[in-house]
Amino acid sequence: MSCPKSTERDFRKHMVSPKDPAHPAMADVADRCRLYQLAVQNPRTEIDFVDRTFRQLRGRSARMLREDFCGTAAVCCEWVGRRKRNRAWGVDLDPDVLAWGEHHNLAALDASARARVALIAGDVREVETPSPDIVLAMNCSYWLLRDRCHLLRYFERVRDTLAVGGIFFLDAFGGYDTFRLLTEERRVADPQGGSFTYIWEQAAYEPVTGRLVCHIHFRFDDGSAWPRAFSYDWRLWTLPEIRELLAAAGFSRVMVYWQGWDARGKPDGVFVPVESGEPDAGWIAYLTAEK
Known about the structure:
Region (Disordered): 1-23
CATH class of the domain at 43-173 and 236-290: Alpha Beta
CATH topology of the domain at 43-173 and 236-290: Rossmann fold
Largest sheet: 8 strands, mixed
Number of strands: 12
Structural class: alpha/beta
InterPro entries: SAM-dependent_MTases_sf
Organism: Thiocapsa marina 5811
Helix content: 25-40%
Shape: globular
Distance between the termini: 23 Å
Strand content: 25-35%
Strand order of the largest sheet: 3-2-1-4-5-12-10-11
Mean pLDDT: 92
Protein name: Methyltransferase type 11
């Protein structure tokens, strides 16, 4: 999911220990895009899947990738680091988040890799780029297109943009817990030391329209917090709807990749193509749509 500009900045509150009021709260000095990357994204694992699956389907390696709703473009940076001939374009509406990615993620690349990444501030339905082998729309960011006509138009634009033999990769989540109002917490280690709590909240779901409102909150060990650091006003698209719209957009074959389970009954991170899934409380799946 991209790293969108928060529409809830006035909800940011900090709880500072009265024992040391002059000491800045951890929430005051936190970088929300960095927290998001640590808590939500795993560019290496994502590109492992995309790179491997493209080779399996096409018998060759891809070179050119476009990351839609790219946020800080961490995935673009991972892509150009895989092979010296790889190129990437990242597209996002938010110029502030793109600037963050350029300053933090692109700046960490060597000059050669940095020159092979282009960031574009614009609407993914309107921008023009060279025809890539791969287009990505991950972390369900395309769910912000809540009307069927708007999502179909986006899928059509992706198909037109892809090179001959190109593949569109996207993801989705679901399960019966998706329709509930809930809050889930997870501790996240910080490589620079310490840890923080990532909180996912499903704050509203409307069954007639499929509208799903979610928030990401962060809580820190000093008692301070950043409520609603990110907010998402989505439509909860189901896999049959997504597959039907991809077919309507003209893709020749659409496949769903389902995650398996390890010996402890935990998700194993291995996604395989399936014709049917399991009615779990919560699941994550990848999709491929071939031009």
